[in-house]
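Annotated sample (chain length 145).
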Amino acid sequence: MGSALQVARQALASGDVPIGAVVAGPDGAVVGQGRNVREEAHDPTGHAEIVALRAAGEALGRWRLDGCTLVVTLEPCVMCAGAIVAARLDRVVFGAFDDKAGATGSVWDLTRDSAALHQVEVVGGIRADECAALLADFFKERRLR
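Output written by the structure step:
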């Protein structure tokens, strides 16, 4: 989670919401990382998870990311949860829960839905206070502007 938080902080320079993600390969080595780039790239799909999954696929030379773990600072949304299932990840580890748009247990639970093509192990709340504080500080500063 420390690596994901470092990546998240890099988003602050571009004005993007500070969310970071890393993909660990089957051996535990980082094979992809990403941060939100929606503002910077003018890309509605530019979520940290999507960027990290693309990087991992490129690094591994395959779209199936079985054996891999995604670590992300905020609970994934519906779009990202769908990509996680499609990528056949083994597990997702996230920091802060998202009670408004979380799709790995808070509002929806797409990654463990029995109707999905693949179910993903989910571990939430890792360094949740630290992850949530980064987001809260960002939005507090944004409201002051």
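Annotation: The radius of gyration is 14 Å.
Annotation: The mean pLDDT is 96.
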